[in-house]
Amino acid sequence: MIRSMLLTAALLTTPVLTGCSSGADNIASAETLAAVSSNLPQLSGEHVWVVDRSQSILQFRAEHNGDKFTGDLGMFDAAVKLDLENPEGGEIHAVIDLSTIDAKDDDRNANLPSKAWFDVKSFPLATYSAREITGSRDSGYTAKGLLSIKGVERPVTLTFSVEAEGDKAVASGTARFSRADFNVGTGSDFETEEWVKFPIEVLVNITATR
Fold first, then answer.
1. Domain range spanning residue 186?
2. If 79 and its partner were Cys, which of 40, 170, 191, 206 is the partner (CB 3.0–4.6 Å)?
3. How many structural domains comprise the chain?
């Protein structure tokens, strides 16, 4: 649940706003987040949730050369409108700054911005939008949406559960897709699964209030 979620980002942790060492860095981060947030729709109504960024994380799981690892999706923002008792009219929108991905390895991090991977210079953001949400607090929820990476848009389903008390809620869930569907990892070394497996799992853990 989130407002200005949950791709950018990840289901996974470091805080959404990473720690900064100086006032200038804090200003830069605030400006970057504002730029990311500007890509979200402005939702209104009693069922709009506002993310607590200090308590919310997006992560991803992948496998590189036999090493299964969990990385952070870094800076993201989201807009969420969801009635937990009647989710059918809800919507979830997320934007992730791809330049802030941390794959927990210097070599991986050096390669991710390149054209073969996320081509961050041409496509700095990943987006996710879902307007088809079903389920309940007891059974969990399913959001069917569209994920866009590198200008490629594909259907991706997010499944999540919500623990809510009063006006505070914590949502935890996962989304799965193949990197090959989004042309992430191209060229002779990566167009197969020899070095990097195709499946990617996004992990969502969001704290929000309304």
1. 23-209
2. 40
3. 1
User: Cα(88)–Cα(70) distance, rounded to whole angstroms?
Assistant: 32
CA 128 to chain centre: 8
Write the Ramachandran bin of 98: left for phi over 0, alpha for psi from -120 to 50, otherwise beta: alpha
Nearest to 115 by CA among 201, 187, 32: 187
Place of tokens 């807009």: 79
Per-position DSSP letters for 48-74, written without gaps between them: EEEE-GGG-EEEEEEEETTEEEEEE--
Both tokens of 172, joined, read 């935890």
Both tokens of 68, joined, read 């299964």
pLDDT of the residue at 208? 96
CATH code at position 72: 2.40.128.110
The partner residues of 199 in beta bridges, in order of sequence, read 178
- pTM comes to 0.85
- Confirm if 96 and 133 have CB atoms less than 8 A apart: no
Low-confidence ranges of the chain (pLDDT < 50): 1-26
Q: What is the pLDDT of residue 125?
A: 96
